[in-house]
Amino acid sequence: MSVPLWLWVATVGGLLALIALDLVIVDRKPHEVKPGEAARWVIFYIGCAVAFGIGIFVFAGHDPGVEFFTGYITEYSLSVDNLFIFMIIMASFKVPAIHQHRVLLVGILLALVMRSAFIAVGAALINQFVWVFFLFGAILIWTAVSMVRKKDEDEEYQENAVTRLVRKVFPVTDDFHGSKSFVKKDGKRWLTPMFVVIVAIGSADLLFAVDSIPAIFGITQEAFLVFTANAFALMGLRQLYFLLGGLVTKLVYLSYGLAVILGFIGAKLFLHALHEYHVVPDWLDISNWVSLGVIVVVLAVTTVASLAKAKRTEAAELAAR
After folding, report:
1. In a domain, 287, yes or no
2. HEC letters along the chain
3. Is the pTM of this model over 0.85?
4. Which end of the chain has fewer surrounding CB within 10 Å, N or C?
5. Domain containing residue 303
């Protein structure tokens, strides 16, 4: 799939227009985003992604279309698991409800810019070195094992190195000052907690890219599809945060499902690399239709099992009262 420069420019311009629309409609007047409003925006962003994917099908062909949708579903499902961390960060910083949308918008926009750099480097490496597939596969399998072995998901948020560095280098006020990231105090410029929490969200999402970027490169090596699948998944993530709310904590088996998906894609990367070295036969190079089927089935099973588990737990708690 050869992507001309004008298509890159048009796509990035379209994505920036969507972000601008979000800023004008939602963030112009800070308010607490209710589930109904969030649901409409989630449907809108999913609709945009579906329309874009159909365009890929029509103008680029069958295989790129399947790769986009498989990558988008994978990135979106991995993003859902990240919402729990976002909730912990928001609670830790005591972000007012009316400003949470701005925090997510700017933080995720920063993450998208940084992810773009990761994608460019990853695409360049893959085009030059086949052994990079082994490296990405190993990262995914290690992440899958870590997800399964993870014991305590309710631990308090610990600021990462980037956030600690910001606090060390710049003075930070104790309280929020509306939606301002900077204020003048005693003739000196101070950062506000708004700026710090945006950095925390952006850097946390960047860490999530350690598994999500290799995962999508296991589905497609076309940088354009990798970028757009990431962009649409991230742009819809903010509204999903407000829509799901506490529901994400009920998806108790989601991490296990994502571990299976990451392990599967990691194995696929190993097989693909071995195929490139002519070590394994063609039929062992897993197709994207198979990948899409595995991902959808695993997500469906883990979601249904999680909600059933939550329902049984609630029933048991009510019976014990």
Report:
1. yes
2. CCCCHHHHHHHHHHHHHHHHHHHHHCCCCCCCCCHHHHHHHHHHHHHHHHHHHHHHHHHHCHHHHHHHHHHHHHHHHHHHHHHHHHHHHHHHHCCCHHHHHHHHHHHHHHHHHHHHHHHHHHHHHHHHCCCHHHHHHHHHHHHHHHHHHCCCCCCCCCCCHHHHHHHHHCCECCCCCCCCCEEEECCEEEECHHHHHHHHHHHHHHHHHHHHHHHHHCCCCCHHHHHHHHHHHHHHHHHHHHHHHHHHHHCCCHHHHHHHHHHHHHHHHHHHHHHHCCCCCHHHCCCHHHHHHHHHHHHHHHHHHHHHHHHHHHHHHHHHC
3. no
4. C
5. 5-88+109-149+208-320
